[in-house]
Amino acid sequence: MAFRKDFLWGGATAANQCEGAYNVDGRGLANVDVIPHGKDRFPVMLGNMKMFDFDDEHFYPAQNAIDMYHNYKEDIALFGEMGFKTYRLSIAWTRIFPNGDEDEPNEAGLKFYEDLFKECHKYGIEPLVTITHFDCPMHLITEYGGWKNRKLIGFYEKLVRVLFTRYKGLVKYWLTFNEINMILHLPFMGAGLYFEEGENRDQATYTAAHHELVASALATKIGHEIDPTNMIGCMLAAGEVYPYSCNPGDVWKAYETNRDNYFFIDVQSRGEYPKYALLDLERKGVKIPFVEGDEEILKEHTVDFISFSYYSSKCASVDEKLKTDGNVFASVKNPYLKASEWGWQIDPQGLRTTLNALYDRYQKPLFIVENGLGAVDKPDANGYVEDDYRIDYMREHIKAMHDAVTLDGVDLLGYTSWGCIDLVSASTGEMSKRYGFIYVDRDDAGNGTLKRSKKKSFDWYKEVIASNGENI
């Protein structure tokens, strides 16, 4: 048997991309709510365009998303039918603390997730909970400057203490921050950072990153104290970067890019800032805002496992003319790979390479918590989609996982495909960029019945899980 007997097969979503109900039961406004669909989406996500509330000129897909808030029982029943062993979801911070700085949590929000976790357990599904999947309460951004302000560590600490206490016995697997390295690439989406004119962006970004790293270590400490059986992980937007050629300049460029990508996980897994990062930040004139006790907290409370997203590999070159669009991360087109409809290069072998690179570096259990193919699905009159392209994509990636485990000895805890039910795309805000085994009747403008229907991949993945990855 290739995969461990308790291998955690399942799927993954994020609150802001599926829940909707943005103003229901006391929920507050978050950065992820006010990111619009359309041409202004990237300027807002980058922190270049100020959008701290809704206006009448834009459509905001997160407001209603696929309304899982009111449909979670139906959705979890479908996950149960597929045989999910785990379901990765995220907590909307503003359901628990609507403004982020209240003394007492919002009971309606706590009850919603408690009911959802119990619904998972009804089907034998283990919740895997991301504490912060890019969410930051807007009040903390407007009043405190978001994660640039050290006070956010205390607000986050209060949040995790409430979560670990309330859901003790219901949740065992936790992730502190989703794709923590995204703060460098999409600062407003990743951490609610907006930059004023003339502000030192590097200093502001790495100050916020340091506060998140300390907060993550504190969450690990608190989670282990409240329940020693808790397994707490970090989360990286991964994907090995290849040199475009054997030009030594390209090789070094790829090496540097990979290392920069690992920087946050080096801190969360090894417990200290790596020397290369300290020297690089010094050259940039960035001062890390250490206070007394930070180094000890980081060193003593490292994560139990490393989780990551993998959609594609990337290429790096010293030749700036080769850069291409298609990913959030600037990359160079790999001539040996095909690409998705959104320009993401499809590379199953790259998953095996990434698994080995991470395991060699950290020697901790790994967990693939996002992987999948964003594609335009064309349903028939009954909402059925023959998504063989998605099955092919996932089959090849599962084969690569199998090789990493059986041939290379990688310790892999589980696999949750991204967007197991169609949801709003984080990068583009589209519904037409679909990942799910379950089709949701909703278009890019928010129209549709929200009716759920099974795609061909639904029954295929059900068989994959039932056979523990043997029948693919």
TrEMBL record:
<keyword id="KW-0326">Glycosidase</keyword>
<dbReference type="InterPro" id="IPR018120">
    <property type="entry name" value="Glyco_hydro_1_AS"/>
</dbReference>
<dbReference type="GO" id="GO:0008422">
    <property type="term" value="F:beta-glucosidase activity"/>
</dbReference>
<dbReference type="InterPro" id="IPR033132">
    <property type="entry name" value="GH_1_N_CS"/>
</dbReference>
<protein>
    <submittedName>
        <fullName>6-phospho-beta-glucosidase</fullName>
    </submittedName>
</protein>
<feature type="active site" description="Nucleophile">
    <location>
        <position position="370"/>
    </location>
</feature>
<dbReference type="GO" id="GO:0005829">
    <property type="term" value="C:cytosol"/>
</dbReference>
<comment type="similarity">
    <text>Belongs to the glycosyl hydrolase 1 family.</text>
</comment>
<dbReference type="InterPro" id="IPR017853">
    <property type="entry name" value="GH"/>
</dbReference>
<dbReference type="GO" id="GO:0016052">
    <property type="term" value="P:carbohydrate catabolic process"/>
</dbReference>
<dbReference type="InterPro" id="IPR001360">
    <property type="entry name" value="Glyco_hydro_1"/>
</dbReference>
<keyword id="KW-0378">Hydrolase</keyword>
<dbReference type="Pfam" id="PF00232">
    <property type="entry name" value="Glyco_hydro_1"/>
</dbReference>
